[in-house]
Every structure is written in C-alpha cells, then in structure tokens.
Amino acid sequence: VFQNSFPFIELSSDADQDLKAIVNQSKISHNLYKHCYHPDLGDEIVWIGFARPALGAIPPLIELQASYFALLCSNKLKLPNKSDMNKQ
Description:
The protein is mainly alpha-helical.
C-alpha cells in the first residue's frame, strides 16, 4: 500500500504538536480543501497531485488543482476563510 510521506518537512521529536497533526492529516487529500489546502495553513503549503479520484484520471485532476493555485497566485481568486474551508 502506497503511503504519502513528506520527508522535506523536518519534524523533530519536540516539534509543534499542531504541525505534526496537520502533516498527518494532509497525507489524506480528503482532509484538505479542494484536496490541496489545509484550512489551518491556508496557502502556506499546497499539496498538489496527491488526490486520487475514485473515477477518472489523475492528470486532469492535478491540472485543475494547478489552475486553481495559479488563480490564487495571480490574485484572481482568494481562499475562503478557515471555517468556510472546513465546511466544504
């Protein structure tokens, strides 16, 4: 079974427990807004390409995530607030 891991995020044993929980929650894209944004981090870290659709191909989904990210970077869209992200 493939399991997502993020070794580039160094978490020492005394790291912030909230950050550890966020990283663990982010390993499952269903826990993320639009399958790529953790509500507690907003746009600080974007997890593009980790979602696995039940039906359909992965590349079009990744392209949609990248397009959404580009719209945010160009200020054409804004992320909703944390409570709204948690509702969706």
